[in-house]
Structures are given as structure tokens and as C-alpha cells.
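Progress note, project year one: complex with magnesium ion.
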Amino acid sequence: NLSEKLDKAFHILKGHGKITEVNVADTLKEVRRALLDADVNFKIAKDFTTKVKEKAIGQDVLTTLQPGQLLVKLVKDELTELMGGDVAGVNLSGNPSVILMSGLQGSGKTTFSGKLANFLKTKKNKKPLLVACDIYRPAAINQLHVVGDQIGVEVYSEPENKNPVEIAQNAIKHAKANGFNVVIVDTAGRLAVDQEMMDEIARVHKAIQPQETLFVVDSMTGQDAVNTAKAFNDILNFDGVILTKLDGDTRGGAAISIKSVVNKPIKFVGTGEKMEAIDIFYPDRMAERILGMGDVVSLVERAQEQFDEEEARKLQKKIAKNEFGFDDFLTQIQQVKKMGNMKDLVGMIPGASKAMKDVEIEDDAFKHIEAIIHSMTPGERSKPAIIDVKRKARIAKGSGTKVEQVNQLMKQFDQMSKMMKMMQGPGGKNLMKMMGG
Ligand code: GDP
Ligand code: MG
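Model obtained:
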């Protein structure tokens, strides 16, 4: 995956201190390839890597210990920003609020109309009305009724009427008269952009003046999605993008391209055919997906499950008060051991890989460490500073280890405490979050 490649590409960098033009080139080539693999438009990928390069050059890597990770983070942050920064919601200020769906046939408009209605009904306590304005395909009206039945939301349709503008206007009257506070208008699409479709959606848009016009796009369509988005945006100046079918093996590069071209927020994603398969769009998660960092994310999630939140909070306090001792160290080790593969975990924690780089990571990697700590007195555990040469010899004897091993542990402990203290600063938020703090 990309983060491994970046780590490798940055191997040569270790000891060089700063990121320079030369050692960043290979890495950014990998980044560009990952973006292109994810269907990001070539020019956008190129502009993007140029921007990251400018930010990366001159950055101090001594403080971050893992240059590869620094660059991954830079790339991820930059991608996140590119895709929209904060999470955007839908405008529900109207009475009723009118939401118009636009997009090509098969993009998922009808399905998403149902999902959104269900979301607003169950999560936002709204009373939505679905409106069938796809009058061309005989089955379309029926499809929306099936969806409506499934989620218990009323569907407004006029099977005999061939004028979508009228249907939409009548639906809004119906909504006002019957206490619906959200009106979701599902429209007809074509397989490709054509003038007739554009004229029709423009007429509906003008007649009903929606609070929110959403452009629905199939994330599997890759590069084509950009042109389609541009065509619809030129006509509708839409408010947001819905990215559907993200449950497939698409990596979602369309998200970046669309955002760059039309500069509108992606608001929701569709992740399946079921009505519940709707998610708010989180730019940072999408950035991870595009970079193929899903494994890292799941590791973090696993870590979150395992770390006892209460424990983590206590620990944070101790670190802040300089009271972190060997008993806490032991607790940490036990927590970490519960999580499984040590190498993955250590690699994930920014800075930890170096602090623990002399430790042989095996299944029983901590056996000696635990033995040594168990041979310390409670006083020594809470105030490691009192451990002098004489005490070290006693501890080594008691734990069946050598004095050098005790020394090594003392050194590692020292580094770890320093690192943890550092983590409490602005850069350490992630670790603390990971620990459930
Ligand atoms: P419309 O023509 O734009 O109204 O598209 P539809 O809502 O009819 O969807 C077209 C097809 O895509 C249907 O078979 C849907 O079940 C499917 N679909 C829609 N959204 C998703 C999604 O998020 N994931 C998956 N896997 N399928 C979807
Ligand atoms: Mg449809």
C-alpha cells in the first residue's frame, strides 16, 4: 500500500534531517500514481503533487522521526482539504424545504431520494414527501412508490401527467397543505448529457426554486464524472454532490476531480442498495481510502476498541503531571499486547517506531521487560529516578536478566515518557484520540 511505499521511498532520507527536492521526488511519483489509480484527473493529480512538494520541502524530519509518515500525513491533510475540509449539511431552512435531485440515469437518484427521506425522517425528525418527476420510464414512478413503502414515506405522483414542472409544483402545494416540511423531487436522467434533459431539469429548477439542488453521481464512472458534473453545474449551479456506489471497489478518485472542477461540497455518499446505506461525506476518510490507508484506519479503530478510555484519561493526567511510572508502562504494554500484531501497531504511532526501534518485536517481546518491572519495588516503579547502579544490579538478578537489559529498558522508558509528553502537544492529538482520550 501507499504508506509502505512512502516509508520505503523515504528510507534514504533518514539522517538527512530535512526533506529536499531530491528525496521527495520518488515519493511524490508514488503519490501521483496512487491518485491516477484512483481515477483522479491527470492535471489535478499533477497540481496536487506540486503543492505537496512545496509544503514538504524544508520540513524538519528530525522531530517527526518517520519521514514517510510525515509525508503521508501531509498528503492526507492536503487531500482532505481538497475534498472540502468540514462536513457540509443540507439546507433545511425552507417551509417546506425543497430538495431537487439531478444526475444521469442509473446514477442512483431514485435510490438516494429514498435514503435521504429515510435519513431526514429517522435522524432529523422531519416529515418528508417524495415526488416522482421521472415521467419517461414506465417503471420509474413505481420504483419510487416501492421505495416510499419501504421507509414509510408518502410518494406524490401523477401517472397521467407528462409535465414534470407541473407535477413538482403540485407536489409542493400538496406538501404545504398536508404538513410535509421537506419535499424531495426525483427527476429523470439520460444515459448521457443531452440538451432535452438539461432543458427539462432547468425548467423544474426555475419553477420550484429549491433550497438544495443535489447532483448525484456514480463513483464508478471515474473520469467521465467530471464532465457530467460540469455540465449539470453550468445549468443548475448545484449546491452539493452525492457520490453513490462507494461500496464497490472504486477508490473514489472522482470525489477529488469533481470537487476540483466544480468546487461544490460532497455531502453524502451511498454505500449500498439498502435504504440505510447512506453516510455523511467525511473528506478525511475519503482521503484515506484514496491513499489506500484503509488498513491503518481499521487498526486505529481496533486500537480504540481495546484501549480502556478511563485508563487513557488517567494516563493523560499522569503524563501531564510528570507522574508516568513503570506501573503505567506495564499497563501500556498489556494494553498493546491485547491488540495483536505489534509491528503494525508501533508503526502506526507517530514517533513510537524510533523510540522502540531497538526492541526486538516478537510474540514474547515484552517478556523481559515485564520481568524487570516486576522485580522493581513499588517505590522504584513510581519514581524511576531513584534506580541507581546498586538497585539495577538487584533488579537484574531478581528478574534473571543482565544489567545491560535493565539499562536498556530504563533508556526506552525515558524515551517513551519524553515522547508521550511531546504527544500531548498539538501534534499528539491523534495518539491521544487513538488511546480513547
Ligand atoms: P436513477 O436512475 O438515477 O434513479 O438510479 P437508481 O436509483 O434507479 O439506481 C440505479 C441502480 O443503482 C439501482 O440498481 C440501485 O439499486 C443501484 N444503486 C443506487 N445507489 C447505490 C449504492 O450506493 N450502492 C450500490 N451498490 N448500488 C446502488
Ligand atoms: Mg430514477
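Strands lie at 97-102, 128-133, 155-156, 182-187, 212-218, 240-244, 266-270, 278-280.
Residues 109-110, 134, 140, 186 surround magnesium ion (ligand 2) (CB under 6 Å).
No further modelling is planned for this target in the current period.
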